Structure formats: structure tokens, C-alpha cells
Amino acid sequence: MSPLHAPAAATSSTDRNPDDAQSMRPFIAALAQRGELLRVGEPVDPQFEISAWLAQLAEGPAVQFDNVTGHAQPAIGNLLNSVERIALGLGISRTDMQQRIVSAIEHGIAPQRVTHGACQETVIHTPDLRREVPAPLFFPGETGPYITAGVIFTRDSRTGKGNVSFARVKLLDGNRGMVGIAPNHHLAVMAREAKARGETLPIAVTVGNHPAVLIAAALYLRLGDDELDCAGALLGEPVRTVACKTIPLDVPAACEWVLEGTLDIDEQHDEKLVSEFHGMYEPYGSGPVATFHCLTRRHDALIQIIEPGYYPEHTLIGGVAIAAGLARTLRAVAIPVREVAVGHGGCGRLNAVVSLSTHRAGDAQKAMFALWGSVNLIKNITVVDDDVDPWNASQVEWAVATRMRPDRDMLVIPGGRTDRSEPIKQDGVATKLGLNATRRACDRPDWTRAVPPPDVMETVAQRIAAHLDADRLGAGQPTANR
User: Fold this and answer.
1) Are residues 111 and 166 in contact, defined by beta-carbon separation less than 8 angstroms?
2) Rounded-to-10 torsion of CA 235, 236, 237, 242
3) Which residue of 308, 363, 438, 466 has the fewest C-beta atoms within 10 A of its own C-beta?
4) 87 contacts: CB under 8 Å, gap ≥ 6
5) pLDDT in tens, the chain (482 residues)
6) b/e for 133-148, b at 16 or more Cβ within 10 A?
7) 3-state secondary structure of 397
8) What span, in angstroms and rounded, lies between the C-alpha atoms of 278 and 422?
């Protein structure tokens, strides 16, 4: 069996382009070195087969498809399918990640324009999107292929304020694509404002970005706050950007693909059913259409694919970003929060777990109302003590089982506002549930956990890690092609 190596494209392009430290390619190379990248050399059909690979390896290695039927460019998916993988992509420890994201929101670094960008090595005017872009058809209930890892850039011509966000792009005929945004999405708000001024809104859809750009794009910020500043803070330096060829926008110079176009809020396409983070289809109705005048890409571009629906990369990119924003919200109202988790089990949107440090009576309920008021989709909230890892579902379940009294510690709020993707909404509202699973002195005289001494646990943990590393090196890397 041949050992797994980093993609040749990543190695050669990194050598050629000094700005590639800000691309996704060093991260892909790091995954390869760790044995967490599977290269598929056999032909793979973008209609359902790519989706089937990613779905069945949803919690496993990243997967690179070197031979996508009908296309010259390879595809890659499952890059950020765990909290630990996201932390690795950001170059941050898992325990420090949330605070780093919060700090990035508060202390952004503005981008820096450069003259040349690898993302513009190939230029195609008036592109036929379905011919040029290896976007998959994921599920039988959907009616066309989607770009799912598209980060959309725009800027208000009047105020000069930028916006960076996620939205799926459904490839239509020729150079047109439907952009899947809700009416309250900041991109939709900016498109309506542009229309009121007699303008169409310029947008650039970038695909294949550094993880810092992906997480920043998923943040829930105020309209006018530029997520690219947050990405710079996560990188520790300004995001290097390049001017688009046909529209007055800048995009990350080191991304893989760029679609340059304009969004007309008045031209709508009936989207019908679309897969959502909760794993089912939602009837979203229509979405605005963009016309893309230009496509640029690296000469050896990889297209990143995020498996939509209830799969961990889709849920966790949003969940990690939302959780950081919620932690910031709680600190702003003096809640002693240690960490907030919005994990895969709750679809990365619907359930939140709040870990509190030393707290007083009423703090758990205060935290619940603060989160419900901050993000409409948050439905179920569990509050735990700081000895419980909020990202660890087993620990949270244990806290609920051993510390919560249902007659005392459940808070049910009917008629709470929610969003269109809530799976069981009624007339735009859903019932909210809060669980207080924190320790109470009145329940037990002693809450001491029965575990071995901390110093012995640490010593043995180091020995276990050494054994696992030795076993991994002795066994060799996973196979590259199947």
C-alpha cells in the first residue's frame, strides 16, 4: 500500500506563491502528514457519488477526489468536520479557540491589498458555470448542483462597509446562479438597499479559503462589521487581498476560485426543496439570481465541497462561530461564562450548552434569556458547571442525569421567535427549553468526583500518547487511492 502524501498541487503552488500561507493548502498538507487525508484516484461522478463518499466518511479523513467525471479540476471535502480539526486549521489549541475567536471579533486586523493573487492565474469571461465548476448534485430531493463552500464578498457603495458571509449558490444555465439567502440575511438587506438606489449589488463568490476566512464568514456580526477583519485577527496578520477583474471588490488572494458578478434582488429563481442542517429538506421558495461575468481560479485549482445537511462539517463551521458569538454576548452582560458549545448533535444551530464558572442563583436563567435574545435559532439551552466540557455530549448528558431536577430546573418558553430553517416551527415561532444542570448545595453535601489523582492521570496520559504515536508511525499512513 502506498503512503499518503500531500496533494501535488498544494506542494508546487506553495513553493511558487509566497502568499499561500494564507491559503487552505498548508492545512491540507498538514492533514496528509497526520494521515487524515484520503486521495481517491478513480473516477467519481459529481451526481450523488461525491456526496455519498463525503456522507459515509463524514467523521473521518478529509477526502480529495482527483478524477471528477467531466471536469479537469479536483475536489476536496470533509476538511473541517470536527471541533479539533477546526482548531488545527486555525493553528489554535481547542481550549483556546473560542477566546481567540472572541478576541478576533473585538480586535480585527484590516486586510491589505496586493498586486497579484494566485486565484487569478486563469481568467474565464462569461463562464458556463455547469461546464467550468465541478459542483455536486448532493441529494435526490434537490434540483441542481450547488457550490456549498462559497464565501460571498460584497461592499455597500454608499457607506463603503463590507460583508462576508456564507450562502449556497445553485448553478443555473450559462453564467447565472441562484444565491440561497433568507430575507433577513445581511446580503439580502444590502441587495435591497442597492436596488433602492437603482443599483445591482456586486458580489464575489470565493471557494477554497483558509479556515480562518471560513470561520469568520460564519460569524453572526452586526450589519456593517467586516468579517474579513476578524479573519485577519485569526491569522495574526492582514488578509492579503486582490482586486477583482470586473467588479469593485477585493477577495483573498490565496483562495482557489472566484466568481465575479452582480446580484439582482428582483430576479428570483424557485429553489423548491433544499437540504438543511437538521438533515431534512426545507421548502425555501425563491432566491435571488446572480449573473457572473467572470470566473478566475488557480491554474491547478481545488474546489472545496462542504457536504450540506446534517453532516458535521456543515453544522460545526456554523456552530463554532455561533458559539463564540454567544460567549461574547454572555460576557457583555456579566455572566461568568467559561465556554459555550453549539455542537453537531444539536445541528450546529438549535442546541447550546453553557459552561459557567463560579455563579450565583439566577445566572443560569439569565444566560438562557440572553442567548435566546441573541440568536433566533437557538432553541434548547443546557447550563452546566465549569467541570463539564460543553463540547462533550457524554459529559453534558451526565450533568443532566446527575444534577438536574425536572420539577425545578426546566424552563419552557412557548412562542419564541425562530428562523425559516427551524424544522418544527409554527407561524415563525417555536417553544424554547432551558435545562439548569448545575450543582446545588441543597442537593448533595459532597460533589467530589471519584477519579485517580491529577498528577498520575497526567503522567499516564503522556505515556498513552507516546504509545499511540509509536503505533501510528509503525503502521504507516493510510492508503492514498481506493
Assistant:
1) no
2) 10
3) 466
4) 93, 94, 97
5) 233 333 333 333 334 455 588 999 999 999 999 999 999 999 999 999 999 999 999 999 999 999 999 999 999 999 999 999 999 999 999 999 999 999 999 999 999 999 999 999 999 999 999 999 999 999 999 999 999 999 999 998 888 889 999 999 999 999 999 999 988 889 999 999 999 999 999 999 999 999 999 999 999 888 878 899 999 999 999 999 999 999 999 999 999 999 999 999 999 999 889 999 999 999 888 899 999 999 999 999 999 999 999 999 999 999 999 999 999 999 999 999 999 999 999 999 999 999 999 888 999 999 999 999 999 999 999 999 999 999 999 999 999 999 999 999 999 999 999 988 889 999 989 999 999 999 999 999 999 989 999 999 999 999 998 988 777 666 555 544 44
6) bbbbbbbeebebbbbb
7) helix
8) 8
- Distances in Å between the alpha carbon of 125 and those of 118, 129, 135, 169, 206? 17, 11, 19, 18, 16
For 250, the grid coordinates are 477585493
Q: Three-state DSSP class for 474? A: helix
Q: What are phi and psi of 480, to 5 degrees?
A: -90, -35
Q: Per this entry, what is the length of the chain?
A: 482
Q: CA 477, CA 54: separation in Å to the nearest integer?
A: 20
Could you tell me which of 135, 64, 42, 95 has the C-alpha nearest to residue 392?
95
To the nearest 10 degrees (0 to 180), the angle between helices 363-374 and 312-332 is 120
Q: What are the backbone dihedrals phi and psi of residue 303, each rounded to the nearest 5 degrees, phi first?
A: -100, 125
Helix, strand, or coil here: 266? strand
Q: Which residues of 33-69 are buried (b: 16+ CB within 10 A; e: fewer)?
A: eebbbbbbeeebebeebbbebbbebbeebbbbbbebe
